[in-house]
C-alpha cells in the first residue's frame, strides 16, 4: 500500500526493542495502542500484505496519520504500559471494557481503629481492604444490607471513645454494635470486621467455628444474653451460606471466565469460587470486539479486569488458550504479591462443566441485555419523534442541549450545560460555567451570559477547525438541534436574543420548560404547550431538565465548598494561593487535611514542617 513520507520515515526509524506503539489519525486522536517485543517488526507488519489483515485492521491502517512509540525494558513492562495507555485513551480499535466509569468496590477502612464499610469507585493504598469490582452499585448496597445484619458495623461519623451516654437508633434495631457507648471494645469490633472481610472472601467456616466456641464460653460463664446474640449471628450466617452452591470438595480459589459474542460486542461472565463454593458472579461488556479473534478478546478482558480487581485467585479457568499466557501469568503473580497464578483450560470434569455453565450464562445475559437495549432505543426513538412533531422540527432532534442556573442568593452562581444525543446523556460533553458578569440573584442575566459564552465557543471551534491540525472541543463544535432552558418565558426570551445576536435563530430550535406545570414555551407563541402526561417525549424532556438541574446544583455546591475551604486556609500563616491549591488537590477537604499526619502534609509541594504544624494548630 502507498505510504506517506511521514509514515515511511517513522517506519525506518522505529527501534527493534520491546515497547508500546500509539497510532493516531489525522485529527490527532489515538485510535490504537499495541505492544511488541520487537517494535519495528510489529509496526511494519501493519503496512505489509494488507489483504491478509482482518477488515478492522484494514480500516484502521487507512486512518493512521502518525505513530509514536515508547521503549521499555521488558515484555512485562510493555504489557503494563499497554494496559495503562488503553485505559487512558480508550482507542476505538482496541477491545475494551464498555463502561468508562470506574466500577464500585466495597471498602473496609481497616486503618481506622473502628473500621467502617463504604462503597467507593477508586482503590487507593491507604491501608483499607477492598472487594470487587462489581458491575452494579445496587448489588453492592444489597450485599451491604446483608453484611450489616450479620456484622453490625459503624455507619456514623462519631469519634469513638466508648463513653457516649447513649447510642443511636441503629443499636436498638441491631444494625450497629455501638462501640460509641462501649457495648463492644476495639479488639472485638475489629475481630467482627475481620470476620466480615473473610465472609466476603467466602471463608465462613473459621468464622462459624470461632463464634460457636465463643457462644459456649459465654454460656458457661452464665452470660446468656451474649450467648444468644452469638447464636443468632451463627444462624444468620448459615442461612446466607446455604444459598452458596458447593462446587467441589477441594478448598480451591478460582475464577471461571467464559464469553458470548454478538454484533461487535462481547459479554464475559465471571464466576467467583472461594473454598470450593460459588460465592458470586458478575458480567462485563466489551466493545470494539468486531473482527477480533476470541483469544484476543479474552486476553484483553483478563488484562483489563485484573488490573482493577481487588483480589486475584490462584487459578483462572478459561474456555480456550490465549496468546501471551505466560507473560499474563507472570503479571498476575506480581499483582497477587508472589503466589503462583495459573491460567487453565479444563478438558473434563467439574472444571469444564463450570466453564460451560459460565458460557451459557454469558449467552443468556447478552440476549437479555440486547432486548433491554432494543426496548430503550425504541422508547428514545418514540420520544424524539414526538418532540419533532410537537415542536414542528424538520427531523427528530439528534442533539439536545439543556441549560440551568444554580446559586445561593446570587453567590457562587454556576450555569450548567448538559448534552443528550439520540436521547442518551453524553456526559463527556457536559460543561460548567462560573458566572462572571452578574451580581446578585439574576437568573435571566446569568442564563444570557452562559449562552453567550457557549456560542462564542462555537464560533471559536469553527475557526479552529479551519486551522491545520485543528481539533476543536466537540462539546462546543456542534450546534444543538434543540436547545432547552430551564424556565418559562423570561428565560426563553433571553435565549432567543442570544441566538439572534449570533445569527443562529434559524439553525437552532429553542424551548423553555417550566417546572410547575411542565409547560413548554416556544418563541412567538403566546400560550404554552402541554405534552401528554405519560408521553415518552415529556419523560425525555423531564429527564434532560432534571439532569441539567442536578449538574448545576453539584457544580454550585462544589464551588461554594471550595470557597469556604479557601477562606479557612487563607487565614493560616504561610498558606498562599499556590499552597492552598496544592493542599486542596491532594486532600480535597478540611477534614482530610485535619486528619493528615505531619509527614503527609509535608509531602505536598511547598509545605514545610513549620507550616504543617501551623496547619494542625489552626484546624484542630
Protein architecture, described:
With 620 residues, the protein is of the alpha+beta class. The protein contains 20 helices and 20 strands. A hairpin with a 2-residue loop joins strand 14 (399-408) and strand 15. Helix 4 crosses helix 11 (325-336), helix 12 (349-391) packs across helix 16 and helix 13 (443-466) runs parallel beside helix 15. The longest helix is centred in the middle third of the chain and has 43 residues, at 349-391.
Terminal residue distance: 69 Å
Tally of DSSP helical segments: 20
Fraction of residues in helix: 40-55%
Radius of gyration: 29 Å
- Given the C-alpha coordinates, what overall shape results? globular
**Main structural class:** alpha+beta
The residue-averaged pLDDT reads 84
- Parts with pLDDT < 50 across at least 5 consecutive residues: none
Biggest pleated sheet: 7 strands, mixed
Strand content: 15-25%
Q: Total strand count, please? A: 20
Brief rundown of the structure:
The protein is an alpha+beta fold. It has helices spanning 5-13, 39-45, 55-63, 75-89, 137-150, 169-172, 186-200, 205-220, 224-242, 294-308, 325-336, 349-391, 443-466, 474-477, 489-501, 536-570, 577-587, 590-595, 598-602, 609-619, and strands at 19-24, 30-36, 66-71, 96-97, 105-108, 117-120, 129-131, 245-246, 254-262, 265-274, 277-287, 315-317, 342-344, 399-408, 411-421, 424-425, 431-434, 482-486, 509-513, 520-521.
Descriptive key words:
DNA repair, cytoplasm, 20 helices, 7-stranded mixed β-sheet, single chain, about 625 residues
